[in-house]
Amino acid sequence: MAATRRILDFLAQTPNDGPCLVVDLDVVRDNYEAFAHALPDSRIFYAVKANPAPEVLSLLASLGSSFDTASVAEIEMALAAGATPDRVSFGNTIKKERDIARAHALGISLFAIDCVEEAEKVARAAPGARVFCRVLTDGEGAEWPLSRKFGCTPALAVDVLRASRALGLDAYGVSFHVGSQQCDLSAWDRALSDAANVFQTLAAEGIVLRMVNMGGGFPTRYLRDVPQAEAYGRAIFSALRKHFGNQIPETIIEPGRGMVGNAGVIRSEVVLVSRKSSDDPVRWVYLDIGKFGGLAETMDEAIRYPIVTPRDGDATEPCVLAGPTCDSADVLYEKAPYPLPITLSVGDEVLIEGTGAYTTTYSAVAFNGFPPLRSYAI
Question: In what residue span(s) does the Orn/DAP/Arg decarboxylase 2 N-terminal domain sit (predicted)?
Answer without folding.
Answer: 27-260
